[in-house]
Each structure stands twice: as structure tokens, then as C-alpha cells.
């Protein structure tokens, strides 16, 4: 006997009806990874005599359907595997879960019917629910799809709730990414300056401090980095760095007190190769120092 193949709307209906909780351990389970588990295993369909005995044990009618909502629950993959095809005949937990399945059956059937009539919405709901725990790129794509799609009903409470979670997740991941790139830009600059000091000798050191702070997550701080000679302070060389985020791109301006010397731009979809930035930082410090040594 082949295993039952669940449709997207059935998976969503089971997950929604049980509020996204594994029914074996009662802990939340991610939509993208949960299993639809059979409380009473499908294997019983191959053994009608034993199936009848199990039905009697749990007070089930002969019309009870192994492959229906009255026997389906959401479960963690490991809880499902732990339970396997065992039935634990007479176990009160099984009776409690079966009763809950019976209570939820009407709701699940209604959800399935609603989603059956709107297949695009079914696919969207499944993707959005799974997207809450996915990576930033997929979340951004789904957010764009939600905002641009003409199938979205503004009065649909399920969609509004999931859309809200996706947007919150995107904002959180974006802030995390922005702060991480800011820290990396500072770290890379300091590392280049440290290397220059080693090249120039023990009389040289470096320092840095904030010059200004952007008023949004996208506009980062100005930061000043000084390369200093402890003996001849007139040889002090200062450059300013300003990382900015726009249209999924990272732009870092390298400037002196008069003008922008160079702008390094990264497309975040393609990643960040810090070698390019490091070479630019090193070049401009050396050029500024050569000017002072003339």
C-alpha cells in the first residue's frame, strides 16, 4: 500500500486547526518542516482484523477513515519517527488526540474547501507560512509577491496575519544584515590600518572615532580613521568612511576633508568581496601620506 500524498490545502488545514503545535510533544512546529502524522498508522489498512480491534479499543465507528482529518495531526519529524507505526493500544493519549481530531474535523474540512476554491491563495498561504523561518532572500521575494499580487484580499484575516509576520521577519533580518555589514566595514578598515602601521614601523599607530550618525538603518555612520606618526604629528593622515544601503546595494564612500576619493559599491545579491574595499583603503592612505612627505 502506497503512502497517502497530502495536498497543500490539506497540510495547511491540519497545521492551522491545531495552531501549529505538534500533538505528541505539544511544542510549536515550523510549517516548512512539520509532518502530517497518522494517529492510527496506515499499516492498519493492510490488516482489517487488527484494524477492527483497534477501532473497538478506542470506541471508533466502522466509518472512521484512516486517511482523513479525524486521524491527521501536525507533528515534528522526530516525534513522528519516534512514534513510527506503533499504536500503543489503550493509551489514553491516543484517545485524547483522536477526540481532538474529531473536534477539529469540521474546521479542517471548511479550510480545505475554501482553499480548494482559491488554489493560488493556497499556494501563497503555504509559502508565506513556511517563509517565516526562511532566509532573507526568499522572504524579500515573497514580500514583493504579496505586495504586488492582485489576488490578495485586504479583508482576509489569515493573509493579513501571515503577511504581518513575514514583514516583521524581513525587517528583523534586514537590520541584522545592516549591522553586520557596518561592523565588517569597520573591522576591515582597522585591519588595513594595522597592516600599514606594521609596514611603516613602530613610530606609527592608528585611531578612529565617530563623526556623525545616520538617522535611518539605511544611512550608516560617518567614521574617521587616523594614521598617525608619534614623532611628527604633521604626518597625521585622516580619511572618512560612510557606508550607505540602497536598493539592495552597499555603498562605501572614502573621502578626505575636501572631497569623495572613491566609492566602492557592492550588489548584496552577489555577496561582498572585501578585497576590493581593502585595496581602495590602502591606496588612498598611501597616496595621502605621500602628499605629506613631499
Instruction: Indicate the proportion of strand residues.
Output: 15-25%
The helix count comes to 8
Estimate the mean pLDDT confidence: 79
**Biggest pleated-sheet summary:** 5 strands, antiparallel
Radius of gyration: 30 Å
- Spans of at least 5 consecutive residues with low confidence: 149-154
- What class do helices, strands and sheet pairing give? alpha+beta
Strand order of the largest sheet: 3-4-5-6-7
How much helicity do the residues have? Answer: 40-55%
SSE run: HEHEHHHHHEEEEEH
Number of strands: 7
Question: Gap between N and C termini, in Å?
Answer: 87 Å
Q: Per the principal axes of the C-alpha atoms, what is the gross shape?
A: rod-shaped
Q: What kind of assembly state do the chains in view correspond to? A: single chain
Could you characterize the architecture of this molecule?
By secondary structure, the chain is α+β, with helices and mostly antiparallel strands. It is 48% helix and 17% strand. Strands 3-4-5-6-7 form a five-stranded antiparallel sheet, covered by helices on one side. It has a two-stranded antiparallel ribbon with strand order 1-2. A hairpin with a 2-residue loop joins strand 5 (237-246) and strand 6. Helix 5 runs antiparallel to helix 6 and helix 5 (119-131) runs parallel beside helix 7. It is rod-shaped. The termini are far apart.
Amino acid at each position: 500500500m502506497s503512502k497517502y500524498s497530502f495536498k497543500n490545502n490539506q497540510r495547511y488545514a491540519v497545521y492551522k486547526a491545531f495552531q501549529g503545535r505538534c500533538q505528541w510533544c505539544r511544542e510549536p512546529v515550523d510549517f516548512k518542516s512539520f509532518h502530517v502524522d497518522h494517529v492510527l498508522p496506515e499499516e492498519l489498512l493492510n490488516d482489517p482484523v487488527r484494524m477492527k480491534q483497534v477501532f473497538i479499543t478506542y470506541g471508533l465507528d466502522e466509518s472512521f477513515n484512516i486517511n482523513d482529518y479525524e486521524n491527521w495531526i501536525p507533528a515534528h519529524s522526530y516525534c513522528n519517527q519516534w512514534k513510527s507505526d506503533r499504536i500503543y493500544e489503550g493509551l489514553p493519549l491516543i484517545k485524547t488526540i483522536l477526540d481532538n481530531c474529531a473536534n477539529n474535523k469540521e474546521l479542517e474540512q471548511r479550510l480545505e474547501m475554501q482553499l480548494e476554491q482559491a488554489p493560488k491563495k493556497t499556494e501563497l498561504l503555504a509559502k508565506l507560512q513556511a517563509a517565516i523561518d526562511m532566509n532573507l532572500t526568499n522572504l524579500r521575494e515573497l514580500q514583493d509577491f504579496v505586495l504586488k499580487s492582485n489576488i490578495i484580499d485586504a479583508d482576509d484575516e489569515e493573509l493579513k496575519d501571515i503577511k504581518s509576520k513575514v514583514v516583521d521577519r524581513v525587517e528583523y533580518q534586514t537590520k541584522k544584515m545592516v549591522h553586520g555589514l557596518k561592523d565588517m566595514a569597520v573591522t576591515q578598515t582597522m585591519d588595513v590600518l594595522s597592516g600599514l602601521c606594521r609596514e611603516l614601523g613602530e613610530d606609527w599607530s592608528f585611531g578612529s572615532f565617530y563623526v556623525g550618525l545616520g538617522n535611518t538603518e539605511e544611512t550608516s555612520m560617518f567614521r574617521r580613521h587616523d594614521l598617525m606618526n608619534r614623532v611628527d604629528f604633521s604626518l597625521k593622515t585622516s580619511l572618512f568612511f560612510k557606508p550607505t544601503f540602497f536598493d539592495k546595494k552597499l555603498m562605501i564612500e572614502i573621502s578626505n576633508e575636501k572631497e569623495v576619493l572613491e566609492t566602492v559599491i557592492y550588489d548584496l545579491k552577489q555577496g561582498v568581496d572585501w578585497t576590493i574595499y581593502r585595496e581602495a583603503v590602502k591606496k588612498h592612505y598611501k597616496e595621502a601620506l605621500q602628499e605629506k612627505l613631499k
